[in-house]
From TrEMBL:
It comes from Fulvivirga sediminis. PANTHER family: ABC-TYPE MACROLIDE FAMILY EXPORT SYSTEM PERMEASE COMPONENT 2, MEMBRANE COMPONENT OF TRANSPORTER-RELATED. Keywords: Cell membrane, Membrane, Transmembrane, Transmembrane helix. Residues 20-247 form the MacB-like periplasmic core domain. Residues 298-412, 689-801 form the ABC3 transporter permease C-terminal domain. The chain crosses the membrane at residues 21-41, 292-312, 339-367, 387-410, 431-454, 688-709, 737-760, 772-791. This is ABC transporter permease.
Amino acid sequence: MLKNYFTIALRNMVRNKLFTAINILGLSVSIACCLLLFLYVSEQLGYDNHHGENVYRVTAYITQKGGSEIHAAHCSVPVAPAIQAQIPEVEEAARVLNTELFGKDIIDLGEDSYYIKGGAAADASIFDILKYDIIAGNPNTPLPHPNAVVLEKEWAEKLFASDNAVGKSVKISTGMGVTDYEITAVYDKDSYNTHLTPSFIISLINTGWHGFIENLSSQWVTNNLAATYVRLQNGTSAETVVDKIDQIFRKNGAEDMKAYGMDKKMALQPIADIHTNDSYFESSGHGVSLTFIHVLIAIGVLILTLACVNYINLSTAKASNRALEVGVRKVMGISSKGLIGQFLGESFIVVLISLIISFCLASLTLPIFNQLVDQPIALDTKNTIPIIQYMIIFLFVTSFAAGIYPAVYLSSFKPTVVLKGKNKDKGSAAVLRKVLVIGQFVISIVLISAILVISDQVDFIKNKDLGFQPDSKIVIPLANDLNKQAQVLKDRFKTLAEVSEVGGGNNIPGEFIFSDIFLYKSGETVDDAVRIYQNWVDEDYIKALDMNLIAGRNFKAGMTDDSLSFRIIINHEAAAQFGFTTDDAIGQTLHNEWNGTEYAYRIVGVIDDINQTTLHKNVEPTMLVCGNGQVPQLVVKANTENYATTKANLQSIWKEIIPNTPFEAFLLNDHIIKQYHSDFKTFNLIKYFAIISIFISCMGLYALSVFVAERRFKEIGVRKVLGANIKNILVMVSKDLSLLIIIAFVLSVPISFYVMNIWLSNFAYKVDQRPVTYVIAGLATILIAWITIGYQSIKAARTNPVEVLKDE
């Protein structure tokens, strides 16, 4: 019986070569897309699962004056040791600090030195909480003493080639000074997918870092610098532990919170949630938005749906050709269930063939796909099990989804009717085909609209006035101990003909300013304070970035402040929140009180608002504080038409002054654009998959136009004999399908507007959705559809009526 079904299926596939080819090609392309998308999604959702259960990161919800809330991924330094000592359910607690808090790190080996990014200073117990693949050294005690360092494999190989790095010594310069470290272990970051992959890990009990930590040991509310991880006892309720952590925190930090006019509630975040949760600021690692994951899943499902729609439409359209077969089989005793099994078997065979082709397509297009995502995937033995799982799921789900309606529809034919030739095409099937065609093109138009709206937003991002000029700006980072060389470097850089200004700052545009304080006006109290971000800069920072000083004056060279009084320049937003007009702000004094000491900040200037970070966020109250030249980053305003030459000239001066320190430089404009990497990635993915969806939809539309034309050949012949011209025939053949596309356009506009409005809501500064965008999307889709059905329509219109009517 199965052999008979298989033979019949192959005969039908050969008999309908065009429809079979369209079904197999559409399903192959869609399954290949789904395989790549779902493998990528699986990897992203699989981050940090290897650490086991009961592992959490301690986070905080900070409610500020005015009700604004921040989800902080880090907490204050004393939290970890306190909760481990006082909460029995906490087996281990450990802190991890970014070693680049005060500038770039340098690693030295003999005469060779390199900037090294992503270093961490941590409690040794971090290795008892998080699982790392220690490939050299003792995995039980990777940090056995204060001057130990665990090095990532790539750096171990870079420094020591093929030799074993364990036992060797390196010199590392961090913000806490220069220290000789013994390499006690090497780990491989590629063994597991995890959010925290430092280039090196040193101990927090090292001399320099230990002193820094001790100074912060009583600060429970401020200096939220520590990523804090805990492992709970088995069977422990996270909610119970959170309550205990919060009680400890409030016992020690209530007074400081009151002084700052804020509230802070502790929380526990499951470690597997970190990689896909972007709601926390200053989160460790570079994760992926869960919204982006949902978009990828939706795109995969939609593309597979389009291919299944093609199969359903073409199967029901050709049903009349198989009506006689169904009637004969029913007369021979085959039940409806038997026929359903046969037709589902046929869809199974089509999908199975498509599955084989899809894997080949996925392999061929994998390099292109990996260029569109951050973390590349591989179709190798590592992913054998998920590939097989997805292939099996695609085979059975797609076979059933595509084949069940055609199977039920065909098996429902009554032999007494079809054997008389009266059941050619049920009205319900014709209606369903129309609905499905409309649905296909609604999806296509929505995706085209998305491309146009996102393209407008991308152009807006690239062209918006940010309050400073990012073009022709070169950023040169300084290592931790090079701040004292800043002025010397500035003076020498200015001697270059292509350089016009050199300024320095703690945080350049495109970086989040972590330092913030609460200031209040004279005559007010801390209850009236405004939270304001502070960026330490030199007197040339504003000029180097071409910021617009709208009131007052710039900082003056050589201007000094005592430890209790500072001169500041605020932005327009800060002036507004303090209730000052731009001009009235000049000369005003703001105050801050901490530990019984009052600090004064006198406003000497007001700058126009700048977008310090991305356009996703509103401009925050910000002040520039003169740092007297002690800055970790230099901004060089220069002619960058010949960037390579300018960079080489700057490097030459650098080597004269600081010969033993590596030189690094980058264009500020490139740095700004990198902030929108995720947005551009989304745009490119939607663009490519929109093209694929239109391609699949048009294949189905072409096949339907062939079917329509074939069924109306005799009618066309009669009309031509009666005098109809080619134009009349073209309208007759194409108007039904064209009407469906127009209906799809009307339905897609509100859907597109709603979906894109949700996406644009992620931006504080965004374009307005224009009606012309949807008109262009609709017209483009209609044009593509007309081109698709045009060939078959013209062929039908030019048919010789003699050839069609000669048998009548």
